[in-house]
Amino acid sequence: MVRVIVDGIPVDVPAGSSALQACEAAGKEIPRFCFHERLSVAGNCRMCLVQVVRAPKPVASCGFPVAEGMQILTDTEVVRKARRAVMEFLLINHPLDCPICDQGGECDLQDQAYGYGSGISRYHEEKRAVTDKNLGPLVKTVMTRCIQCTRCVRFCTEVAGTPELGAVSRGENVEITTYVEKALTSELSGNLIDICPVGALTSKPGAFQARPWEMKKTDAIDVMDAVGTNIQIQARGGEVKRIVPRVNDDINEEWLSDKGRFSVDGLKRRRLDRPWVRVHGKLQAVSWQDAFVAIARRLNGVPGSRIGAIVGDLCEAESIMALRDLMLALGSPNLDCRQDGALYDTSSRSRYIFASGIAGIDEADALLVIGADPRHDAPVLNARIRKRYLAAGRSGFPIGVIGDVGADPTWACERLGDGPGALRDFVAGSHAFAEILKNAKKPMIIIGQEALAREDAADVQALCTQLAESVGAIAEGWNGLNVLHTAASRVAGLDLGFLPRPGGRSVRGMLSGGVDVLWLLGADEFPVHAIGPETFVIYQGHHGDAGAARADVILPGAAYTEKSGTWVNTEGRVQRGFQAVFPPGEAREDWRILRAVSEVLGHTLPYDTLEALRERLRLGNDAEAVQPDVPGGQSGLDARPFTSLTQGYYLTNPISRASPTMNECARVHAPHTAVAAE
């Protein structure tokens, strides 16, 4: 530690810290534009000037290392004059756009000009104008406002791993550009909006819709993937206008995927806002009571073994528990939360979660990725892998891949094969990379859904477990055998035992004529067309997607922004989101719908309030009663390579498919996956 005196206050900071960090440790506010805690130091803006005793002139504190006994002054007349001068230069070419700028109200330049500027301008010449750049459907540019802090350039290069932005020309002619005009390809490009300190980069889909101070802000959890990114939902007038990330260093740091941020416009399109019942082949709008009566009549006399339920990818734990309790009360053993047919080792919770924790990536010193594409499955987690890769250097963090991670996973890797055959060779010790894992202190293995949603998944997972034990990935104080989920509801479903009971059927068994009545709770990501015409389908959800199109009864539910709920992320972390707006029309929270229908069916669920249901969540787990998956050997391995389960990143759930913005992204980046959004 190094002792530094800041405005007469002694503080101890780690050796190698900057003067800016020392000032913040002393509780002093230092203005800055180019400096960002998660990016490299550039020293462009010079706004963070401070005075160091015996230094000939003010220094940029962001890049000035501290030394033992250094005395720093942050609020002298010299410092104030220097900051006013810097601010005057920054504002010379900045346009007077504040009344029409979307950054107004949360603009660093605006705030710091008020706090540290001079209040007058001596510049009367014409201002410089810069041509706007087309960065694609998500990020709007007004480059005349740019102050060349290069935060966006460093973010693209260092965090996103797609170095598509840079500076051209010199002096007063410097411009930030993509060199050759093209759309940004990163799945994290929306974070440029957050880190830009001025209004040069703003949201293109959300332009001119609301001011920050007009919106009600609610904490929630992103459900577009299984990372459990902490978000803030911002709504005005009963409509969600914007979703931004919250800081959580253990999960998402301060980043958010583009799908989680920009699919917000899908929340108000294709919505189910009233109950429907199919009469003579056509859906007709009915009252809640009529819908419940239609369900009760159809279930009358149907044995529990002929009733099934499937949980979708966006459901919260409360609705999963309520549906599980209702199905068990009806005597049904046919429950499944795995729309993709994935198989998991449920003998221990640590075998089906990201056991090391997402933050554990920072500790790993070797990585093997099996059947996963982290860049598209979990962009925020992929940024953590890239961060570890850059911190350790190419030789310090070797990464091997079995399967397809795309042309550019944003980190260098050794491609070791494309299917189970390569994994079997690994276990046999035929790969040199196996020695790298054995020699690592904390080796990590990530298994993706591409490896688990196969007929030989049990065998694949058995091989992965065998490999992890042989290379020391499972040891005292470290469990590096991680499952990377892609569905926000999956871990909660596994925890609550929403799986086939002894003698019960999985999704595939239910589709092949195994049930007469099928209850779909937001389930749209399985081959709905395979449901037989004789099966009575009840769809409970919030969007008119594939499941609703096949349904005989539709019960309108609430989206994740419209209810308080509990989600469990891929690492098994339990988190809670809160209601930001009300559901549209007659739609209701899913657990309330299930509680109401249970009364009509004569199997009233034993809770009337959300608090009582959450107490049931805490006490009512009987996952040990589920039917175990077939244990893996090695004789049933399929030679087929691990292949992606989705047709693209942007259109993976009902909300994103209803979003015009996500459809436009799919059209730009993957034209073969685009669908028409209303």
Task: Explain this structure.
The protein is α/β, with parallel strands linked by helices. Among the domains are: 2-91, Ubiquitin-like (UB roll), CATH 3.10.20.740; 276-339 and 490-625, 3-Layer(aba) Sandwich (Rossmann fold); 349-484, Dimethylsulfoxide Reductase, domain 2. 27% of the residues lie in helices and 17% in strands. The strands form 8 sheets. Strands 14-13-26-25-24-15-16 form a 7-stranded mixed sheet, sandwiched between helices. Strands 2-1-5-3-4 form a 5-stranded mixed sheet, sandwiched between helices. Strand 7 (166-168) and strand 8 (175-177) form a beta hairpin. Helix 8 crosses helix 19 and helix 11 packs parallel to helix 14. The longest helix has 15 residues, at 77-91. It is globular. The termini are far apart.
Task: Label this structure with key terms.
five-stranded mixed beta sheet, 21 helices, 27% helix, Ubiquitin-like (UB roll), seven-stranded mixed beta sheet, single chain, Rossmann fold, Dimethylsulfoxide Reductase, domain 2, globular, 678 residues, alpha/beta
SSE layout and pairing:
Elements: E1 2-6, E2 9-13, H1 19-25, E3 49-52, E4 59-60, E5 71-73, H2 77-91, H3 108-116, E6 139-141, H4 151-160, E7 166-168, E8 175-177, H5 191-195, E9 201-203, E10 216-221, E11 230-236, E12 239-245, H6 258-262, E13 276-279, E14 282-285, H7 288-299, E15 307-311, H8 317-329, E16 334-336, E17 366-370, H9 374-377, H10 379-392, E18 399-402, E19 414-417, H11 420-427, H12 432-439, E20 443-448, H13 449-452, H14 457-471, E21 474-475, E22 478-479, E23 481-484, H15 490-495, H16 507-514, E24 517-521, E25 536-541, H17 546-550, E26 553-556, E27 565-568, E28 574-577, H18 590-600, H19 610-619, H20 654-657, H21 660-669
Parallel strand pairs: 1-5, 15-16, 15-24, 17-18, 17-20, 18-19, 20-23, 24-25, 25-26
Antiparallel strand pairs: 1-2, 3-4, 3-5, 6-9, 7-8, 10-11, 11-12, 13-14, 13-26, 21-22, 27-28
Helix pairs in contact: 8-18, 8-19, 11-14
